[in-house]
Amino acid sequence: MGKKSESVIKYLKRHPMLMGQKARELGASRHELKLWTDQGKIHRIASGAYSLTAPLDTPEEIIATIKSPCALAGLTALIHYGYTNVIPQKTWILVPLPRPRIFRRGVETMRQNPGVYKIGLTTTHTKWGPIQIIDREKAVLDAIRGRFLDGEEKFRVLKRWRKDPKKNRTNLTRYSKLMRVNKDIFNWLAFLVADE
Predict the structure, then answer these.
(1) pTM, full prediction
(2) Are residues 87 and 153 in the same domain?
C-alpha cells in the first residue's frame, strides 16, 4: 500500500466521507481513486464521494453527498419527526425549482419554487455533518397538499402533529398562508376537532 493510499485511508478512518477535492489535496488522483475502488480498499458512494463502508443506506448519508441546495422532506421528514408509520421505498429530497430532479437510485425528488423552498428549512447535525431538513410544520403542510399519502394517513399525520409538544401553531399558520394552503389546513383542522 502506497503513501497516498495510506493518507486517504487514514483520513477516511477519521471522517465518514471523502470528497474528490479533499482527495486531490491529499495527493490522490482520479485514476488512483478508481484503482482503489476496484481493489475494494474504498467504496464510491456517489459521484466524487468515497467511503470505507459500503454504499449509502440512510437518508443522512444520501443527502450529505449531494452538492447542491437540498433538504430532507416528504415521507423522510415525516418519519424523522415520528408523524407516520408509512415505510418509504426512497429517500425524499426537496430541491428549489430551477434545479433538475436528482436521478439517483433510492431518491425521490420534490421540487418547489425558491420562495416556498426556503420556508421552514432547519439544520440538524449528524455524523455526516450538518444537513438541512424541513421543520415539523412544513412537513405537515407538504403532507396535506401532496399526493404521496392517502386521506386517512394525512389525518393521522395531523393528529400526531397536534399531540407533539414541540409543535408551533404560529409557524403552521404563517407557512400555510405563504404556501397558499390556509383554507385546506383549516378544513383538515376543523375535521380533526370535529372527530375528537
Answers:
(1) 0.68
(2) yes
